[in-house]
Structure formats: structure tokens, C-alpha cells
Fold this sequence. Notes:
Layout: E1 6-14, E2 17-24, H1 26-43, H2 56-62, H3 64-87, E3 96-102, E4 108-115, E5 129-134, H4 139-152, E6 155-159, E7 168-176, E8 188-194, H5 203-207, E9 214-222, E10 236-250, H6 256-262, H7 268-302, H8 309-325, H9 332-360, H10 366-380, H11 384-390, H12 394-415, E11 418-423
Parallel strand pairs: 5-11
Antiparallel strand pairs: 1-2, 2-4, 3-4, 6-10, 7-8, 7-10, 9-10
Helix pairs in contact: 1-3, 4-7, 7-9, 8-9, 9-12, 10-11
Amino acid sequence: xxDSLLKVEISESGPCERTINVTVAADSVKSQREKVISExxxxxxxxxxxxGKAPRKLVASTYADSIREELFQQVVSDGFRQALEKEKxxxxxxxxxxxxxxxxxxxxxxxxxxxxxxxxxxxxxxKFRVEKKVRKLTGEDVERAIQNFRExxxxxxxxxGAADKGDYLLLDFSVLDEEGKSSPDGRRTNQLVMAGxxxxxxxxxxxxxGLGEGLGQRIEIDxxxxxxxxxxxxxxxVYLVDVKGVRQKSLPELDDxxxxxxxxxxDMEGLxxxxxxxxxxxxxxxxxxxxxxxxxxxxxxxxxxxxPGSLVDSTIRQQIENIKREGRQLDEVxxxxxxxxxxxxxxxxxxxxxxxxRKEGITVTDEDVRTRIEKYAAQLGKPxxxxxxxxxSKDALAHLHSLITVDKVVRFLLENNExxxxxx
Length: 424
């Protein structure tokens, strides 16, 4: 199919959407139909004929619907590709074919919609002022962090008798249905659960206080009408609990031996100093990151533009898949509504970065790539040659270029805007 066989009309159906109308000449459609019939004839299974030997007319009539469907697919696909080349348009999404018509003389017309990149008029991205809010670290913050280390190294001592508040129970439990039968979906095994959890909403945990080792212990919980879990609010739930053992938590002493166990320091004073420095670095990093995001939001607000819906939808799907991979349950429709604003921001942020890089001539050099790979090798403690292998593919190298571009643009923005540090 040559370009001379196509008639192309294109119109703007939205800020990031184009509608294309394409007419394919009858001779081209007829030629393509013959090719499709020939392909079907090679594999056609018609009684009385070996594959490839059935008459063309018989093949065409026997497989008429399938041939027509394949013809449409090939002609539209080829016509759409050539139309884009002719108009020099780069689509961002698959075309949505809305109108398809084959005339009696075999002239074929179709209409398709697709997304394109927005035209961004970036007028202001310098001389903004944003605050970098740095929270002051307290001694209580450091002690809480030490307590977390202590909790992580707790061990559990078997206890006879009933569980007191704060003890732990190793148990299996099932949720019973209205007929008193155990539901397979509601069964959990080898759970270590605190009895009398400090959270007042942990009603199951509270009901474990007083239980001892034993099978088939029945717990009934009336969940209030305002309980935050939609699946439990206002319900009476019966649990069948098998307690395998009761345990008391034992925490290590906070002494110099503990400090040496959890760090490279020699005493508690050194551990506190190390934790404080680490937390201060984290606070500084988080505050800097938030200031950068606040700056991007200011730039986006000052330079409004629409973004392609297909890219936003793709970003939403990716975030939902990430959530599902973590094993978390969610209502995908509701999740999409919640995620959409942040997805739109992420897409706009990416376009802003690319446009600033273009306007300011910010590029990625071979030296930038070498330096970044050397940095990765040092951080991971791996030979440089091994890390270089990871970036030999086109996709990996393109991703690395993207990361470096982001870093360079962010550095440029921090140098050309005012970031004022304030206490949070």
C-alpha cells in the first residue's frame, strides 16, 4: 500500500487528542484482500481438499467473516501507520477506531482517535520561593529509635497459664459462618498476636486476655456500628481459636553490649550519637525532597497544561499493580479515583522536566553515565564490569539517562529558585 493510495484528514479533538480520518483506495483494498485469501488458503481445512489446494472462491466464501475481519485489521493498521508518517505525528496511545466503512466499490474509510503529547508553553520556572521545613530532632525521637532496635531483638519465653495483657499467643483461628462452620477463607495459622494491644480498636487482641493453651476456644466480638473496617462494622463475629502457647516478651538490656550488637559503636553513648546523625540525615533528606516537590507544584500551577489521559491511566494501573504485588487488598475502582490526582501530577512533573531540559540545553553525557555507574558499583560493593553489564540493554540505558536528566534538572531548579529553610 503506497502513500498515494491514502487520503488523510486530521483534526484536534482535545488538548492531547487527535482524530484522524483515512480513506484507502479500492485497488489497494482489493490487493490486500487477495493476499489475505492466499494466507487463509494455505491453512484452510475444507472437506475433500488438502491444505492449500481448495479453490480460492470456496476458501473466500467458507471463511468470509474471518477474512473480512483480518482484512480490516491489516488495512486499518497499515493505513494508520502510513497516515501518521505522512502527517509526522507520534501517537502516545493505541488508536481507538470508531468508524469503519467498506463501500461497494471496496474503498475503505475509517476514523480513529489517539493521544499525543501536549504542547507546553513553559513561561516561568525560575525565581520561585519555597520553604524547606526541617523538623528539629529531640532526645525522645532518639530514645524511640533505640526502643525500636530493642523490640526487634526481643525474644519470647514460654509461659504457663492464662495470657495477661502484653503477653503473646501463638495461635490458629477460624471465622465461623452463620451455621457455625469454619470458613476456609477466614482461617489463619501460626499467628503471634499480642493480648490486650494498646490500640483500642484491636478488639480481637483484647479478647485474647485470659486465654491459655488449648484447642477450640470460642470468642464472640460485637463490632460497633462506627468500626472503621467496613467488613466488620456492626457485625457479631465468632472466632474459633486454637492457642498453641503463651509467650512473654523479653527485651534486651540497654547496655554497651547491646550497642555493640546493633551497631559498630562500642557503647550506648556512641549508639545514641550514631542514631541521632542518621535521623538528622533522614530528616534533612526528606525535607529537601518535599521542598523539591513543592517547587514542582508551583511550576505546574504557574504553567497549566493538560496531559494525555492514556499516560495518566497507565500510571494509575502501575500503582495499583504495585499495591497488589504487596499483597494488599483494594477496590480498584475506588483506588483509581484516589490515585488519579497524584498520577496526573507525576505525568505533568515528567513533562516539565523534559521541557526544562530542552529549553536549557540540559543533556546527558557519556561522562555522566560513567560516573553514575561507578557510583552504583561503589554503593553495591560490586566490580565495575558487573554493573556495566546491567546497563548494556537499550531500555536500561534509557532509564539511566532519564534518572540523570531528572537529577540535573532538579539541580538546575535548586540553583535558580529560592529555597528557604525553616523550622517545622
